[in-house]
Amino acid sequence: MNSKEIEVLQIIEENGRISINTLSKMLDLSEGEVEGILKKLEKEKVILSYSAVIDWSKVYDQENITAVIDVKVTPQRGVGFDDVAERIYRFPEVKALYLMSGAYDLSVVIEGKSMSQIARFVSEKLSTLDSVISTTTHFQLKKYKHDGVVFEDGEEDRRIVVTP
Hints:
Arc Repressor Mutant, subunit A; alpha+beta; single chain; four-stranded antiparallel β-sheet; 5 helices; two-stranded antiparallel sheet; 6 strands; 2 domains; about 30% helix; Alpha-Beta Plaits
C-alpha cells in the first residue's frame, strides 16, 4: 500500500463524508485518481463501510441499552475461536465482537430495547451455544467517547491551565 492510499484512509476515517473534490485537493491528486484509490480500497475490503456516529440519547424514544458481554468459550479443534465467533456475530443484536486476551475469550457488544431483552439474548441464544462456558454482562450507563468522537454537553473545559 502506498503513502497516498494510507493518507486517504486516514482522512476518510476522520471524516467519511469528505468530498472527492476536497480530498483530491488535500492530496494533490486528480479526482479520478482519488476515486480510483477509493474503489481499489473498497474492492480489497480495506474500506468496509462508511458510517456516522450518532448520539441516540438526544433522539427521543430511540435510545437502546448497550451491554458488553465477556464470554469464556472452549475453542474447537482446527478452527479455534473462529467458528463460535461466527455463530455469535450472526445474531442481529450483536453490534461488535472481539477476540480478547485475559480472563475472557470474546467480548460481545449488543444492543436491545430493554434489559430483559438483553437478558433473553444471553439466556436463550448466547449461553445455549455448545462452546460457551460462561458469560459476564456489563451494561453501558453513559457514553463519553466513541470511535474518537467525544459526546459533549456543550460545557466549556473548566480545568485550570497550569504552565511551568
